[in-house]
Specification:
heterotetramer, A mainly alpha, B alpha+beta, C mainly alpha, D alpha/beta, A: mainly alpha, MetI-like fold, 80% helix, 0% strand, globular, D: alpha/beta, Rossmann fold, 2 domains, eight-stranded mixed beta sheet, four-stranded antiparallel beta sheet, 33% helix
């Protein structure tokens, strides 16, 4: 188990470096020149060149890359070219917002998706199954930002149940939670739909396996078979994709944040993309990629705990 | 599972640290995040709005009348030849956060910083004729010009390059870091920026003009106008700044407890026709375009009457405003005739715009109109950086632009028509027949004569139509009924100093 | 003298014609599959016949009738430029289906190739390729597409390219996992033993066998591609206005969601219906094509 | 059909609906099993062996359905029991050991956990008591150091060990009948014998009736008391092993025998493959299902038109569903 964990952690650092590398070079491929963008309409060619030198944009790309990695290792993610502040500070400000949204979205998704998926599998072929699966199909098929818009229209505008904004200036915990609820539900809905579909098919597969037949033949009550013996097996693939859904939810979060005017890493990256703030995009992507890998790695470790076969092989 | 919830609670509470509820706190919606509050480098109405609470200029515009009033300078005098302005500073003005008293050295520092090429200030051009800034004693500043410039005071008002920063603060905080740690003398002190979420300023109790009645102002970043409107109606915000969407304006006008304000801005939105690109070198083609675009319908249909007609690039908020210029009422037949005369039926016009609303949207009905008079159109929407580069090159056929700025006629006229505004700069039409008139306006000390010269520029440029004003921008703002004393300016900023809150 | 040696994958000796008929019957009897297929055929028809079906031009502005509510002339009303919503939706179907088709074509080609080569080659090549693939897979696909569009500028081609790049790793991963399960099967060994070249084995045996699951994955990619295009357009990074795309229409309508909700709602429904149809098709294909999924599913419980 | 039978099945039928119409996978099957007796059930795959016993336990996978018949466990008809009570029969009355020990154990639970699940499903034992019982039965199936093994996960055990665990699980509640469904097919040859010896030992120790489902005819002679041969969902022959297994009274059984390699015959004697395809259950002929492949009856009019019944032959205990069984004896005599 210890070796397994160590190997996972090693793989994690490799993956983070890989992701950052990919993104770094993608961003360098952006046409358009940040220096002249920053200096605006009256800039002279000399001043543009000077700024480029200052930002290191005149050096070869690989040199810029090495510099970035070297600094990143010491926790320096560069300085935002727009604000002059350390990019890491702005990222740090955004992390709590993103974490609250993504974590609550995933929690909602798991709490709703797994039981619904199990129920659907257990009632395979019944009306309840059809109903849940139709709901799940809707959940994965509607664009998340559209669902957000409709929710604002219905739940914030027609019935004033929730605020239209995903964040509040209030420091009151419950006010913030109230503002978080609608975005989290919208984000959670699409992920829940996905998890429900996955849980159902995993559960159906497990319920068709020999050991379930054995348990039945031995007279183990159906309830125990489903909720204890089979569920743990079915949760293994579900657990495996929670990491994927987490990454996915970070992508959707950009849209949800945009719809609900909520701060977070997604809206920060979007803003930085429009402002061509390289350093900030890099920092944001670096942190997002690390978060994805970190979550996946922790899930892998949990996976090893749930599925005894994994850590041995 | 318990761990997850623990972490969630931690995260949520972490998100809440930073602001404390104030007694009288005004919440103002801004449309996008701030990023740079350094007067030498500031850009964008959100930044300018926040900065206007933190800084003062030597002089200021009256919010309502655009008259120039004393601010940090109690009084000023102009030398006889018009090349030296001497300002007497107010005594005992203190910078925020313990950066000491304002002296003439801070003014010299601020203005020279803009002029210094190393600063790369986008406003260096605004102070172009300034030879030097002298500080003979702590409370006296002398600005020396190369040549007389009657418009100088406009450049030294409390806006952009006119805002005065503390030498000590900029030096100690650092040239780049200063961008988001501004220190000024204004009625509010910069408190905290929460990226993507809000910016907060708190009352400067020692403000030389008297402490503001508000304790704090929070600028909330809310991009979507519908969401902002709902927030205003629900009492989540008090002031809706930069209101643009006609249906939202309409909705808020009908809402209870909400007041909608509007004022014509200092800028028009224009279609710039590059005279160096064929066939736009032919005045008949330019006129055909002017006749062909249904600007009346644009204002009535697309903007639902929320914009004013643009007769020239000088709007009705300027004292120099006039409607006595050549007009181009929608006339498709005339447009067709002119094209036929020029032998340019069916040429292709490339409409180039930056990918920002409303510029990228305006082109759609315009293209539709032009197609109807027999001009083929191609719409090219460019990212901001690419757009500026394209304009910098000077060979793009058209662009759509507005010169947002103070009610200083030089601001739009020089930017759009002077040859010195290219390259690089705003004179994308490459118009070259207004230089002499603009220079003589600068030298003219008599306001009435100056106005006449400016009006001559307007007539001439509207006859030549290198730039077609599509409409005069109009600024909308809404606030809840508990907001009292809000005055709307024409600068496209909002100022909370005069505001008080009533429950 | 090579290929004929390879036996059928299944020992079933049912006559071929009958098997095909039975399979066809099975597809058509699958309600989700046939419904999905029907909707997609209908949509394709709408997309192809857009110039004849749409009552107005997709970018034809009528400034005298902006934000009109539904009427005889404008069945679903107009947007802020007075453009007919229905016509824009009809033309938007073109873009959405174009994006879906192009993304499927690109990600299927490259994903299958990468996955098949990795799976077939094995060893360090497979490990290296799959590590790179896993890195891209772990990365939020939408964010990757967003970064790519930001990098290459917003246009239809770039959106297609970005979404394809973002979703190719998925196809590659599926393809590889299928290939490694086929790799040890006897007929592959046999073909190798008789000296068939690797590429020939790959083309002749591995690809056809791997296709069913990959096809299932690509229907899902098509659905994802439509959603991604809509999301990018919504953020202002997709196909640029005034081109009618469903994402652009939602985005246009966002500002009018309370006064003219029909603009955004109708475009959202179009996206959802298409994506539902694709998902139904994918689910149906999975049920019918991939026998692994057609397992004994257990007694009805509780 | 003897009254002393611990398990008696009469006319048991199970039907699966299919695209081609209903398929009768178990077609009027009858047999009985005495206490301490081992009944071997043989037949090709798909002949309905396993389905018969899933029908007995009422575990037929949907959409299949038991359509009729009686299942008497110690004289009580359990076919009529409501589903809720049927659960108590499974494991405690009739237990089943499946073919593949590799998949029959849940990989994510320890074997102790899974055994406790079974024990506690039927008894009110405390976890401690149940664990003690589990250890006891593990000991009984000769698992070395059961106290150590009980907390292992299935993948930590060998195939043979796993099958022992499954057997332990099956006998833990001392069922009256143990159904072993090809218990050794998935195991090494050396382990096979051990498992079968163990089953035989447990049968006599516990006095259970045992059903050994197999297609390995070699095992039948060694371990079974009686044999039932199934073809196309029907029992076509039952006979005591003592009556001479080689002296089959049904052509199908004969063919089955000739199709397996035997060490006691000269190696150069050719093996015969049964001609033709196994029957399509959805399209069974009106007469004998084996007729198209039968060396004896192929083409005979009576075989084609009439479905033969399972009837006594030379003795009451040797039944055959071939009306022409005498021809087989004649042929033997002739040879």
């Amino acid at each position: 188990m210890l070796r397994y964990t160590a190997r996972r952690l090693l793989l994690m650092s490799i993956t983070v470096i890989g992701m950052v590398t990919v993104v770094f070079f993608l961003l360098r491929a952006i046409p358009g020149d940040p220096a002249s963008y920053m200096l605006g309409d009256y800039a002279t060619e000399e001043s543009v060149a000077a700024l480029k030198a200052e930002l290191g944009l005149d050096r070869p790309v690989w040199e810029q890359y090495l510099g970035f990695v070297k600094r990143a290792l010491t926790g320096d993610l560069g300085t935002s070219v727009v604000t002059g502040q350390p990019a890491f500070d702005e990222v740090l400000e955004s992390i709590p917002w993103s974490a609250a949204l993504s974590v609550s979205g995933i929690v909602i998704a798991v709490l709703a998706g797994v039981p619904l998926g199990v129920m659907s599998a257990v009632r395979h072929g019944t009306f309840a199954d059809l109903f849940i699966m139709f709901g799940a199909l809707v959940g994965i098929s509607f664009p998340v930002f559209w669902v957000g818009l409709v929710c604002i229209l219905l739940l914030a505008h027609e019935v004033r149940l929730f605020p239209a904004l995903g964040a509040s200036s209030s420091t009151d915990f419950f006010t913030q939670v109230h503002h978080l609820m609608l975005p989290a539900l919208v984000l959670g809905f699409s992920v829940a739909a996905y998890i429900a579909r996955l849980t159902r098919s995993a559960m159906l597969e497990v319920l068709g396996q020999d050991f379930v037949r054995v348990a039945r033949a031995m007279g183990v009550p159906e309830r125990r078979i489903v909720y204890r013996l089979a569920l743990r097996n079915a949760l293994i693939p579900v657990l495996a994709v929670i990491g994927v859904t987490f990454a996915w939810s970070l992508g959707s979060a950009i849209l949800v944040e945009a719809v609900f005017s909520r701060p977070g890493l997604g809206s920060m990256i979007l803003k930085a993309v429009f402002a061509r703030d390289y350093q900030l995009v890099q920092a944001g992507v670096f942190v997002l990629a690390s978060a994805v890998v970190l979550v996946n790695t922790s899930l892998d470790i949990v996976y090893g705990w749930v599925d005894p076969r994994v850590s041995v092989s | 599972m318990r761990k997850t919830f623990g972490a969630l609670a931690l995260i949520l509470s972490a998100a809440l640290i930073g602001t404390s509820a104030g007694a009288a706190e005004l919440r103002v919606r801004i449309g996008s995040d701030v990023g740079n509050l350094d007067p030498a480098r500031i850009f964008g109405i959100e930044n300018q709005t926040v900065a206007s609470h933190v800084y003062n200029g030597l002089v200021k515009y009256d919010q309502a009348t655009n008259k120039i009033l004393p601010d940090l300078a109690e009084s000023w005098s102009v030398s006889e030849d018009g090349t030296a302005y001497t300002f007497k500073l107010r005594d005992g003005v203190m910078f925020h956060k313990g950066y000491g008293q304002l002296t003439s050295d801070d003014v010299k520092f601020s203005l020279e910083r803009v002029l210094n090429p190393d600063t790369k200030s986008r406003y260096a051009g605004q102070l172009a004729g300034v030879k030097g800034v002298e500080a003979p004693d702590p409370l006296t500043v002398r600005v020396v010009l190369e040549a007389p410039n009657a418009g100088l005071l406009n450049k030294l008002t409390d806006f952009n390059q006119g805002w005065i920063a503390s030498r000590k603060a900029v030096t100690e905080i650092g040239d780049k870091q200063y961008a988001m740690q501004p220190v000024g003398t204004g009625p509010f002190v910069f408190d905290k920026w929460s990226p993507g979420n809000q910016v907060r300023v708190v009352a400067n109790k020692d403000y030389f003009g008297g402490a503001p009645s508000l304790d704090a102002v929070t600028f909330r970043i809310i991009k979507d106008e519908t969401a902002a409107a709902i927030a205003l109606e629900n009492g989540e915000i008090d002031v809706f700044f930069a209101l643009q969407s006609p249906p939202v304006i309409d909705r808020l006008k009908k809402a209870d407890g909400v007041t909608v304000m509007n004022r014509v801005a200092n800028h028009t939105i224009n279609l710039v026709l590059n005279q160096t690109v064929k066939p736009l070198d032919d005045i008949r083609v330019r006129k055909a375009i002017a006749y062909g675009i249904n600007r009346e319908a644009l204002i009535a249909g697309y903007f639902k009457g929320t914009k004013a007609p643009g007769h020239s690039v000088i709007t009705s908020s300027f004292p120099e405003y006039t409607e006595e210029v050549p007009q181009y009422a929608h006339d498709p037949e005339k447009a067709k005739a002119l094209l036929k005369e020029a032998g340019q039926e069916g040429f292709e016009l490339e409409l180039i715009t930056v990918g920002l609303s409303p510029y990228n949207e305006l082109v759609i009905p315009m293209a539709s109109d032009l197609e109807k008079v027999g001009i083929k159109t191609k719409i090219t929407v460019l990212e901001r950086g690419a757009y500026l580069q394209a304009r910098g090159k000077g060979d793009i056929m058209t662009c759509i632009t507005g010169i947002v700025g103070p009610p200083d006629p030089d601001s739009p006229l020089v930017s759009l028509y002077a040859t010195k505004s290219f390259p690089p700069g705003m004179n994308t039409s490459r118009y070259d027949k207004a230089d002499d008139l603009l220079a003589s306006a600068s030298a003219e000390q008599d306001p009435a004569k100056r106005t006449a010269i400016y009006q001559q520029v307007m007539s001439q440029t509207m006859e030549d139509v290198p730039v077609l004003p599509l409409y005069a921008d109009q600024l909308f703002m809404a606030h809840s009924s508990k907001v009292k004393g809000l005055v709307q300016n024409s600068l496209f900023t909002v100022q909370a100093y005069t505001v008080s809150l009533e429950e | 003298m090579s290929a004929e040696l390879a036996p059928e994958t299944t020992a079933e000796a049912v006559p071929r014609g009958r098997a095909v008929r039975r399979a066809l019957g099975r597809y058509l009897r699958h309600p989700g599959l046939s419904l999905g297929l029907f909707v997609l055929v209908l949509l394709s028809f709408v997309a192809i016949a857009a110039p004849w079906l749409a009552p107005h031009g997709p970018t034809e502005a009528d400034l005298m009738n902006t934000l009109a509510h539904p009427s005889g002339d404008y069945v679903l009303g107009t947007d802020q430029y007075g453009r007919d919503i229905l016509s824009r939706l009809i033309w938007g179907a073109r873009i959405s289906l174009e994006v879906a088709l192009a993304v499927v074509a690109l990600s299927l080609t490259f994903g299958s190739l990468i996955g098949a080569i990795a799976g077939y080659a094995g060893g360090w090549l497979e490990r290296t390729m799959m590590m790179g693939n896993d890195i891209l897979l772990a990365f939020p696909g939408f964010l990757l597409a967003l970064a790519l569009v930001a990098a290459r500028g917003s246009s239809l081609e770039n959106v297609i390219l970005a979404v394809s790049i973002a979703y190719t790793p998925r196809v590659a991963a599926v393809m590889r996992s299928v290939v490694i399960t086929i790799r040890p099967r006897p007929f592959i060994e046999a073909s190798r033993a008789i000296g068939m070249s690797s590429s020939r084995v790959l083309l002749r045996h591995v690809l056809p066998n791997a296709l069913p699951p990959v096809i299932v994955v690509t229907t899902v990619s098509a659905a994802t591609a439509i959603l991604a295009e809509a999301g990018l357009s919504f953020l202002g990074l997709g196909v640029q206005p005034p081109t009618a795309t469903w994402g652009n229409i939602i985005s246009d309508g966002q500002g009018f969601i309370t006064s003219n909700p029909l603009i955004s709602l109708s475009a959202g429904l179009c996206i959802a219906i298409t994506v539902i149809a694709l998902n139904l098709l994918g689910d149906g294909l999975r049920d019918t094509l991939d026998p692994q999924m057609r397992r004994y599913t257990g007694e009805r419980m509780l | 059909m003897s009254d002393g039978a611990v398990l008696a099945v009469r006319d048991l039928s199970t039907v699966f609906p299919s695209e081609a119409g209903p398929v009768t996978t178990v077609d009027g099957v009858s047999f009985s099993l005495g206490a301490g007796e081992t009944l071997a059930v043989v037949g090709e795959s798909g002949s309905g062996k396993t389905m018969t016993f899933l029908s007995v336990l009422r575990l037929v996978p949907p959409p299949g359905r038991v359509t009729g018949g009686e299942v008497l466990l110690e004289g009580a008809d359990i076919a009529a029991l409501p589903a809720s009570e049927m659960r108590w029969i499974r494991g405690a009355g009739i237990a089943m050991v499946f073919q593949d020990p590799l998949t029959a154990l849940n990989p994510v639970f320890t074997i102790g956990d899974q055994m406790l699940e079974v024990i506690r499903a039927h008894t009110a034992m405390s976890p401690r008591q149940a664990r003690a019982l589990a250890l006891e039965v593990l000991e009984r199936v000769h698992i070395p150091a059961p106290a150590k093994r009980i907390d292992d996960y299935p993948h930590q055990l060998s195939g043979g060990m796993r099958q022992r665990v499954l057997i332990a699980m099956a006998i833990a509640l001392r069922p009256k009948v143990l159904i072993a469904d090809e218990p050794t097919t998935a195991l090494d040859v050396t382990v096979q014998a051990q498992i079968l010896e163990l089953l035989a030992e447990l049968r006599s120790e516990l006095g259970m009736g045992m059903v050994l489902i197999t297609h390995d005819l070699g095992l039948v002679a060694r371990y079974a008391d009686r044999v039932a041969v199934m073809y196309a969902g029907r029992v076509v022959e039952t006979s005591p092993i003592a009556q001479g297994f080689g002296r089959s009274r049904h052509p199908y059984t004969r063919s089955l025998f000739r199709s397996i390699p035997r060490l006691d015959l000269p190696a150069d004697q050719p093996l015969t493959v049964i001609a033709g395809q196994p029957p399509d259950l959805a399209r069974l002929p009106a007469g004998c299902a084996f007729e198209p492949r039968c060396f004896l009856g192929n083409g005979r009019e009576d075989c084609r038109s009439e479905r033969p019944a399972l009837l006594p032959t030379t003795s009451d205990r040797h039944l055959s569903a071939c009306p022409h069984w005498r021809a087989l004896i004649d042929a033997e005599a002739g040879a």
